[in-house]
Design brief:
Tetracycline Repressor, domain 2; about 170 residues
Length: about 170
């Protein structure tokens, strides 16, 4: 179920929390959603930091390993269905300025983390100097999110496998 289809009562019943306790901490369902999104983003930032900054492997190998882990966690057949940023973007970005702003900032930070590893690959000579890391990171992130959405629609991992193939065997191949 998504944001709109889930009421506060359902959240409280599932969590076993009294209504008063919820409203003591959160002014609204939207405030709760923003806190959940912040926690999600914090966890994903930790995952990215752990994998992307592990300097033992080459930068593009770390980037591929990062996307492979995301695919295992959020791809078809995984316990969690899709990326929370993408799911909330589809459902809420047009309806809540505060959630849209948080989504925008989260995607921007994610893109910057990917751009950092791409810059590292450029500095090592693994990618051509003519590459623009922010633009390339934007393309990779958008392609991954699109493949994840398509995988969900198709109930297939093929779009994600295509993403990996074209990203790492064609686009990022020196």
């Amino acid at each position: 179920m998504g944001y709109a289809a889930t009421g506060v009562k359902e959240i409280l019943d599932e969590a076993g929390v009294p209504k008063g306790s919820f409203y003591h901490h959160f002014a609204s369902k939207e405030a709760f959603a923003k806190e959940v999104l912040n926690l999600y983003v914090r966890g994903e930032n930790e995952r990215a930091e752990k994998i992307l900054r592990d300097g033992k492997a080459a930068p593009l190998r770390r980037l591929r390993r990062y996307f492979e882990e995301l695919m295992a966690i959020y791809g078809p057949g995984a316990t969690v269905s899709g990326c929370m940023l993408a799911n909330l973007s589809l459902e809420m970005a047009d309806h809540s300025d505060s959630i849209q702003s948080l989504l925008h900032m989260s995607f921007s930070n994610w893109q910057t983390a990917i751009a950092g590893i791409l810059q590292e690959a450029i500095d090592r000579g693994d990618l051509a100097r003519s590459n623009k890391p922010q633009e390339l990171a934007s393309f990779l992130l958008n392609s991954y999110e699109g493949a994840l959405l398509r995988s969900k629609a198709d109930r297939s991992s093929k779009p994600l496998k295509n993403f990996l193939h074209f990203a790492f065997n064609v686009l990022l191949k020196r």
